[in-house]
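Hi, here's the filled form for the chain we discussed.

Project: internal
Contact: R.S.
Residues: 188
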Amino acid sequence: MTEPSPDTTQQPSFEEVPNPEATAPAEDPAPVDPMTALALEAERWKDMAYRSQAELDNFRKRSAREAQETRAYANADLLRALFPILDNFDMGLEAARAESEKSMIFMGMSMVSRQLQDFLRESGVQEVEAQGKVFDPNLHEAVAQEASASVPEGTILRVTRRGYKLKDRLLRAASVIVSSGPQAPAQA
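And the returned structure, exactly as it came back:
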């Protein structure tokens, strides 16, 4: 076996490795006064304490705001589930009214209807106004368009399903039929 020649093997040279002390920036030759260093350190910790206190204060305010919002809108899911029941109850009330407004069934259902409306109002629920209003896609859901000579285009003709808001949030959009304006004359 032949030994490799000294030119073909790579051996690390100490001269090629940079000296960390040589590349480090030169330190200030003047020593720092210990009192000044301590004052700077104390100021740094004081600033950090102020910042931490401000962050904690902001966290408390944000948590209180979120808790208040959660309480204000906690019943939203329950109310959404109640709306289809209210729709069916209103259909039953209208059927009882068609039978006779003097019947005991109609009077009893009317009393329950008033109680339900009072409950919704006390819970902060408001009905979305729609009848005769200009169509607003943020509050209304158009299910159809009808021509109308007396109602301008974009105005709501009829409400097919009532919409509701809880305080300032929309829980359910009102389903409406919107006027398309006067019917265009048929061409022969």
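Let me know if anything looks off before we file it.
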